Amino acid sequence: MATIKDALYVLRTLKKNKYEAYFVGGCVRDYLMRKDSNDIDITTNANPYDVMKLFKAKPTGLQYGTVSIPKEGYSIEITTYRKDGVYLDNRHPEEVIPVVTVEEDVQRRDFTINGLVMNDVLQISDFVGGKDDIKNKIIRAIGNPDERFKEDALRILRAVYFQSKLGFQIEKDTRQSMADNRLLLNNIAKERILNETLKVLREPHQLKALKTLDTTLISEVLPGLSKGIKYIVDTQKDPLFIDSFFSLCFSLNGSVPSEWKFSNIARNKYEKVVELVNQKRELTNLDLYTYGLEISILSNKVSFLLGYSAFQKSSLEKRFETLPVKSAMDLKLRASDLLNLIPKKQGAWVQKYLDEMVLLVLEEKLDNTYDALKAYVLKKEASHEK
Ligand code: ATP
Ligand code: MG
């Protein structure tokens, strides 16, 4: 977390060197709302090379005129006044063009609440009506919303993110334009869509944001989520955890769409939950053993949210704790023991035999002791020989 005070020295140093510099964007909005910021943005008429001469700054986005000073847990990003050239891919300007005044610079920014600037004595200049919009809790595009969302369609999801973060209303024309331009989100890199969707889900006004996604039909551009979002909006009073959200949506959808760039761990988790939830039955000890505690609890949570099952988190935890075997390693008779007991060559039969015994142990039809397992094997072999 960052505060304006920690970055005042940057404005002062730039000013001492005869440059203009202002705080801009989220940190000014957050300052007015008396909140901490994720990071600090500064806009200046100094060019990036001059900024790098004055500070230990890294060239993190030179093509956009941005350098960053890394701090503990946040960074100070310094960007030269600019406007953006034409956008051909609904995301990136073909070029950025330096401009002379800060007033021109703020015109390229996305929403009025993000277009305020503040100087080194904490005076705010508002060229876009951002102060009133913060006061009235309104998210409004700067300039013509259609043009702004066509330039960069990710702004559509950014508006939803700011709603989720701040709880503000989205102004009528801005909202209509988000709905009208929603299909442009198909042109945006899938990693960016995931990233922005995660940002929406992590914030406190998640349900309000999901409602916007539903009513504007933006949800239909998010693969596999639309049914789930509608269901959540209709039934939930509290925000969902991210894993519960995706698991519920994909369970209603029937599968995890390949478009989402999840980590392998996350994708595997959601696929397993979808598989379990859609069997619409109570979880057995074999499920707990096969899927593990995390996936079992998550699928129970989703089954509960969907009205298929009671909420059983603590009883699942207890059952898992007392499982006679939690992994194949826990079986008291090993593959090597089996090969000693049965004079057959190693093969697939060994694993099958062990799995069968695990199942019997889990069903409490067989004790997990070497003697009991050995007796079971010998009895079974004897019956084969008959
Ligand atoms: P957060 O609280 O999430 O950090 P923020 O407003 O600081 O919110 P950032 O993504 O950090 O948002 O961007 C900083 C500023 O840069 C924004 O406030 C806005 O002025 C501008 N900005 C960022 N992304 C865009 C965009 N896609 N289009 C236009 N302006 C943008
Ligand atoms: Mg920020």
Q: Mind sketching the topology for me?
A:
Blueprint: H1 8-16, E1 21-24, H2 26-32, E2 40-44, H3 48-54, E3 58-61, E4 66-71, E5 74-80, E6 82-84, E7 96-98, H4 102-106, E8 117-118, E9 124-125, H5 130-135, E10 138-139, H6 145-151, H7 154-166, E11 169-170, H8 172-180, H9 190-202, H10 206-215, H11 226-235, H12 242-253, H13 264-277, H14 285-305, H15 313-321, H16 335-341, H17 348-362, H18 370-385
The structure holds adenosine-5'-triphosphate and magnesium ion (MG).
Magnesium ion binds at residues 26, 38-39, 41.
Question: In words, what does this structure look like?
Answer:
The protein is of the alpha+beta class. It folds into four domains: 136 residues, Beta Polymerase, domain 2, CATH 3.30.460.10; 85 residues, Hydrophobic Seed Protein (Orthogonal Bundle), CATH 1.10.110.30; 87 residues, Methane Monooxygenase Hydroxylase, Chain G, domain 1; 58 residues, Serum Albumin, Chain A, Domain 1 (Orthogonal Bundle), CATH 1.10.246. Helix content is 49%, strand content 10%. The chain is built from 18 helices and eleven strands. Strands 3-4-5-2-1-8-9 form a seven-stranded mixed sheet. It has a two-stranded antiparallel ribbon with strand order 6-7. The termini are far apart. The model has no long low-confidence stretch (mean pLDDT 96). It binds adenosine-5'-triphosphate (ATP) and magnesium ion.
